[in-house]
Design goal:
homodimer; 218 residues; alpha/beta; Arc Repressor Mutant, subunit A; Rossmann fold; 6-stranded parallel beta sheet; 3-stranded antiparallel beta sheet; 9 strands; 44% helix; DNA-binding
DNA sequence: CAGTGAATGTGCATTTTTTCACAATCTGAA
DNA sequence: TTCAGATTGTGAAAAAATGCACATTCACTG
């Protein structure tokens, strides 16, 4: 938790988040300690990978024993900064937007939706089940500032995504999670994460056509 | 399109899908030809990367000119096998499940939801806006077989995901797209793609706490 | 029909990421 | 207190992915 001097590979960060899922289960089931081997199996990775990933941030294990589940989970949460509340806003209240806003998993992990917007003014004013009312995008700047929004989630159609991204970054949002199927541009100070569900399906399609017979998938 | 002999890096496949997005736009806007440099900018990658990715599958460009948009798009679609219809089924008709089933983008790209299931029998029988009725998971085996389902999408809560995955693979589904926050296990003959939205947010959170000042994000 | 300009395709160097393999070190038992 | 057994932390090797740089090849012009 202390070191973290040099720069850490991006895949490592991604995996830390993945490690935390089974750790939560283990904690709940009362397992006090876990080895890198067991954790690796649960996450589908190599044990050395687990150890090396963790080693970027300190020494969390006990040689001969393994990692104390509770402590390791707390350490990962500190590293990933999920031990605090983050404020999100979301733009684009179609089906996907509504699904995300109402997703309990996010709230449980400290991600709170503070505002919901839509480009379509006919939707404005509608009250969502989560309690938020849909706001017009004209109010992005004001609300993002007032509510201290850290992360903007974009679930608009492709054609509105870049405009919305501009509004959000202009309003001071420091990072974006974009679901629209195009690469939104943002200033370097803003970190953008891109989720394209179509890409995932196309991956599957590709492998389906080759995977004839049965090739081990790693 | 012809060669594709040796094995292709996984990141290449992922990028091919990404390239197709701006290509669709270019085609629609009537641009006849695109250079690797322009396409690279649109996708946020290196031009040499674009060329190398394509080179795994053949020679699609014309030196001195670039790539013919229509032809390149067709080639990529052939490679990714998105030039045909794929049959999906989805299990777990919560908000996310409903959002996916009703997503027009999937249909547009040839991904048809042929059946929708839920673990909760109280939901069974309900008719979705897309026309499908929710089926009980007991009917997975029958329907997957009859409807020739290629890909199973899992949007159940975590605790049901593995059981559902087992039902699907047992029914002969050859690949899975899993949204539950755990690593589902499947036989080697079944390809699994995992989407954990929480992981994306945790990535953002991590970078937000470090990205003080403004670091270029690649 | 040769010359020019442009952009591809690709061998090679570089960088990044993963994996191996083992010394270091801890617990618990005798 | 020493020994056995287990598992970490890590340097070094291997593998994978990226990016450079340039020879190659095409279209177009005069």
């Amino acid at each position: 938790m202390m070191s973290e001097s040099g720069k850490v590979p991006a895949p490592t960060i991604e995996r830390l988040a993945i490690y935390s899922r089974p750790l939560e289960d283990l904690l709940e089931s009362g397992t006090p300690v876990v080895s890198s081997e067991r954790l690796a199996i649960l996450c589908g990775v190599n044990p050395a990978q687990v150890r090396k990933d963790l080693a970027y941030f300190g020494e969390f294990g006990v040689r001969g024993l393994g990692y104390e589940v509770r402590e390791l989970l707390r350490a990962i949460r500190t590293i990933l900064a999920t031990d605090r509340v983050w404020h999100l806003c979301i733009v684009g209240m179609g089906n996907l937007g509504r699904a995300l806003v109402e997703n309990e998993n996010f709230k449980k992990r400290g991600y709170l939706f503070a505002a919901a917007f839509d480009v379509d003014n006919r939707k404005v004013g509608e009250r969502l089940r989560c309690g938020l009312a849909i706001e017009p995008i004209a109010k992005i700047k004001e609300l993002v500032g007032r509510l201290n929004v850290d992360i903007g989630v974009i679930t608009t159609p492709q054609e509105d995504a870049q405009r919305v991204a501009d509004l959000l970054t202009d309003a001071g949002v420091k990072s974006l999670l974009n679901f629209a199927p195009l690469q939104v541009r943002a200033p370097a100070s803003c970190f953008v994460e891109h989720v394209d569900l179509g890409v995932k399906l196309e991956n599957l399609a590709y492998h389906l056509t080759r995977l004839r017979g049965a090739k081990p998938h790693k």
